[in-house]
Input
Amino acid sequence: MNHLQLMIEFLRIAAGNLWRLKLRTLLTVAGVMIGIGALVSMLSFGNGMQKNVSAEFEKFDLINTLRISPGENENVKVPIDSASVSKILSLKGVKFAFPEESFRARISNGDTTLDIMIPALPAQVNCSPYGLAFGNASNSNISAKSFQRPCR
Output
């Protein structure tokens, strides 16, 4: 018996067993189809979510943003002051740098109360390539002038 005849005999026996055990064959095929469908669905969902999150990061330019916090050097706090910001601005590839300040706030509406952190950005943010999506930049000298865009 050569290899071709042996292969044909194996296929005939396999087809006969599949035909004889129809319910088992049907359940196996259904299980494989459901498994493949679930796998394709999960991969598609994950890929779509990754694209949505990446698009949101790019929309707000978060991928190119680096947040630097004050550190400690031998138990001495190293502050980030104007000189530090100037040094950071002088680095290659840095387009804009500013100190970020925030303060706690409690917002109440009826029975709902939220404790949040509100960021305060310097007025120069309006001059940056990013600008503000909404709100006003803060200024140490609060006046009507501080709510105008300083770059125009």
Summary: The first helix runs from residue 3 to 20. Residues 141-152 have pLDDT under 50 and may be disordered. The two ends are 91 Å apart (CA to CA). The chain is about 40% helix and 15% strand.
